[in-house]
Amino acid sequence: MNLAPHKRHLISLKGFTLVEVLVVILIIAMAAAAFTGLARGTLESYQLKKAVQELVLAAKYAKVMAIEYQSPCTLHLDSDKKEFYLSTVTFDQNNSQVQQQIVKNGFMKPVKLPDNVTFIITSIIQTYMPQTEIGKTVNNQVVFLPNGTSDAAAIVLGNNTQQYTVTISPNSSEPLMQEGIQELESLSIDLDLTI
User: How many angstroms separate the Cα of 134 from the Cα of each of 125, 179, 183?
Assistant: First the structure.
């Protein structure tokens, strides 16, 4: 088959060579790998920040509940189950006993931490106990009192690359979120305000 010279030229320009196709595939694969790593880091950062914000909201809600119901409200930190939740003290009139009840309503429910987020450090100094136990350090609960005060706390949540500290001031019960690890010693504790 003898084609005219101008038709032979058109036939050779119709497709891509195997090398060109492989180069394009390689470029797409490299871009996808870079994007996947970036997306994973962004997702982990988002999950950590969301968990820290939920902890701050739980602390604020605990303060509101303690003041509104004039009963202590406790923020429990369970590092084994990787969760935190609020509980209140209720009086059961049927059997005349005081019970702790986990808060589950439209504003608050137990929060399970994502797999990549953990409690790194929890340092809590109780300030509400009788005089013999003031200053005792516990690691799993922060108590908010009806007078608007609470235990002093520094709770660090983190993943492999980032950490956030939630500090709770004992005088005002206000939680504060800060990036990095903060020390509990920097909080002022006025023991005259304890009950």
Answer: 8, 29, 19
Distance CA 195, CA 193 (A): 7
Kindly report the pTM of this predicted structure.
0.71
Q: Where are the domains of the chain?
A: 28-193
CATH architecture of 28-193: 3-Layer(bab) Sandwich (3.55)
Ordered per-residue pLDDT tens for the chain, 195 residues: 565 555 555 555 677 888 888 888 988 888 877 777 666 667 888 999 999 999 999 999 999 999 999 999 999 999 899 999 999 987 777 877 878 889 999 889 999 999 999 998 888 887 765 444 444 555 689 999 999 999 999 999 999 889 999 999 888 889 999 998 877 655 554 444 444
* Long-range pairs for 166-169: beta carbons < 8 A, 24 or more residues apart: 166/52, 166/55, 166/56, 166/59, 168/59, 168/142
Q: Do β-strands 175-179 and 163-168 pair in parallel, antiparallel, or remain unpaired? A: antiparallel
Closest alpha carbon to 170 in 184, 181, 180, 156:
184
